[in-house]
Specification:
Strand content: 35-45%
Distance between the termini: 45 Å
Number of helices: 3
Helix content: 25-40%
Radius of gyration: 17 Å
Order of helices and strands: HEEHEHEEEEE
CATH class of the largest domain: Alpha Beta
Largest sheet: 5 strands, antiparallel
Length: 154
Amino acid sequence: MDENGIKEGVIAIVEPILKDNFLELVDIEALSGGSIIRIYIDKINGRINLDECAEASRMISAALDASGSMNPDYTLEVSSPGINRPLKKPEDFIRFSGKKAKIVTKEKIGEGRVFTGVIECFTENRVLLKTQNGIIQVPFDNIKKANIDEDLFL
């Protein structure tokens, strides 16, 4: 099975467990043919702490082992997304409205592909980002990478 197939299988097992515990799946990586599964989680409301990550890791590991679909020698890593949390879904931009962010686009908007500013809102499949040069409208499907960036000085 390829790494995308492994990720999809893990997501199907992990997401219900996380939702039942008021947690969300932020990102997942399947590395080395699925021998390393790296899962980033957060609380639905607030920031996750180390003890909550450890508890989630135990639940996820038990569920993955019970599924029988994993390489028996896989390594599971569960952690928080950190202060520079990736923004992957439209809901992320809604949730973090008012926060500082850095967005890298696939294609240029005006003269640039890297924008920093404050997330104003998410509407009509676009992120409105307030930059030092005004409001930039970034189509969601043009986002290559986006992160909360608490280190920004605006």
